[in-house]
Structure formats: structure tokens, C-alpha cells
Fold:
Amino acid sequence: MRVVIVGCGRVGAHLATTLDQRGDEVAVVDISADAFLRLEEDFSGLAIRGTGIDEDVLRSAKITQADAFLAVTNRDNTNLMAAQLAREVFGVPTVAARVYDPVRAEIFANMGIVTICPTVTIGNLLLDTLEAAPVRTG
Amino acid sequence: MYVIVAGGGKVGYYLAWNLVDDGYEVLVIERNRAKAEAIREHLGAVVMVGDAAEASVLEAAGAIRADVVIATTGDDEDNLIICQVAKRRFDVERVIARVNNPKNEQLFKRLGIDATVSQTNVLLHLIEQRLIPDGLIHLLTLKHQEVGIVEVRVGPESPVVGRTLAEIRLPPDCVFSAINRGDNVIIPTGRTRLEAGDDVIAVTRAEREAELRRLLVGM
Structure:
């Protein structure tokens, strides 16, 4: 499948590398050229320097042919705007964004964007570790 | 009327200043404590520190009873999300976003922002009008720029001079809403007679503009 990723931080680079090795067609967008150093040397996808909220930048990442769009910069608002561009302007079928703020994650989930909220997800995982934890007595 | 201004930079600050002056109830939300403090010194207790895209901050600002939220930061993505959160979460009647990249004006309207202000476009329009005065000035565009409110000055050679509105054949999809004549504003009726030098404020479809201009300017 064809995937556009906005943000080449730790998560973005991990996604790009994994999908690329799996044989998917990947384009990754970041405003900093240094971010692309996180990619493996044999990365065969596109690395586009620019902002993920600019239509022309997204076009050069071949968004018009993309099956999925993942917005994972470290800024909630950038991810949410990029995701809406992907969905509303380019009609990408699957659009997901990382959103740290749980409230914003909920609001935009109601608007048809898949929002992944690390704050809640990680909080819940940590709570789960407590479920099985023994309580010291005495 | 209660107006929340998100962003206390130059635009937000001068906007808030004018709104306070005009008697509106105003609150500026500014992330940077030092900037917020500077605004408080100049305008008084009309500022709070916080990120306006956070629902909890908007809630503390009383967004639920705000009539208008205006997002004025230098980042389009922040302005978009602030407005969307205000609208979706707090049912704010009217949300207005400053647009830094003119390309985003259409997109923001499509994404539910009631009005956008692009400084770049405003400046471009002003410059165009100074450079190429063709007698027609765009005052406002409504909904995806299909319909606009324009001002046209009636030229001395125009066939409409000395005629009443009832006698003039206007282009389709075009109405006159006001006429500025000297110091007076006239709300026109069919019996209103046009004079050379009148500034006609008209609502018109974009594709009728040229026709309207020819009729009123007369060349």
C-alpha cells in the first residue's frame, strides 16, 4: 500500500522504516532535513523536506495516490490540520493522527479522523501493570 | 458581547485594544507569560496565560458564553484548531481565524471556520486597487468567493446618471444595498435617482462584476 507519513521523529522514522522493509510505498515528510538521519540507510521511500500542512508539499509526497496518511509530528495542531487536509482535500481513505491532548483527540475522532492519544494509551498501559501487582502487607 | 482573542502578539494586542475601546468585553489568551504581563500593563485585567487550543483553557476563559472567538497567532495550524475546538466543544457562534498563508483561506472555510482574515491578501488587494483603479472595490467576499459586496463609483459618462433605480436594468444576481453620496448614506428604493460620483454598495455574483462595473462606471 501507499503511505504518507508526516513527521520523521522516533515514531515517524520507525513507521517509515518498518513499512518500507515490508515492501510498502512510503513517503515521509519533515521540516528538518536532519530528521531523515533517523531513517535506515537502505530506506527506499521518498523523503520530502517541508511542512505537512502545505498542499504542495503533500502533493510532492504523492498524497493524491496515497491509501493511508499518518500524522506524527510532535505538535497536536499540526497533526490535526495535516490530517484534515489529507481527508477533506485529498480524500485519503485512511487518516490517523497522534494527538497528545485527550480532549482534542476526542473532538477530532468525532469528525472522522482516527486519533491516537499516547497520553491515555500509555496511562492505561501503566495502570494495567498495577492490576496484577501484589500489594505488600504488614 | 463577549470576544475571546487567542494570541497576544501584535495582531491580537491591537485587536484587543480596539475592541476594549469599542466597549466589548474582551479576554486575550496568550501562552507566553511575559507577553501576557505586558498586555495586562497596557490594557488591564483582560488577559489570561494559557494555550487556547486546550479545551480546559477555553473553558476557564468562559468560552461557553463567548459570542466570538478570534484566533490571531502566527501559526495557521494553531488558529485552525483553536477555532475548531471553540466551535465543536463550546458551540461558539462565530469563529474567526487569521490566516498567515493565503493558500489556507479556502481550506479554513471548508473546515467550518466562519471567517478568515489574510493580511497578505488584504495588502495585495489594497495594492492592486491603488495600482489598477478600475472603479470597483471589493469590500467583502462571502462563501467561497462566489458572491461579493463591492463598491462602484458612478462615472459622469455612465448611462445610469439621472435615472431612478426602477429605470435601470441591473445585471442578474445583483442588488444595490446602499449609496454613499457625500456625507449621506442612502438606502435606495426604486425612486432613488443616481448621480455621478455616487458610491454604490452592491451585492453581486463574481461573474457579474465586470458587467456591473461597465454599467456604473460607464466605460
About this structure: The first strand of chain B starts at residue 2 and ends at 6. Helices of chain B lie at 10-21, 33-43, 55-60, 76-90, 104-110, 119-131, 209-217.
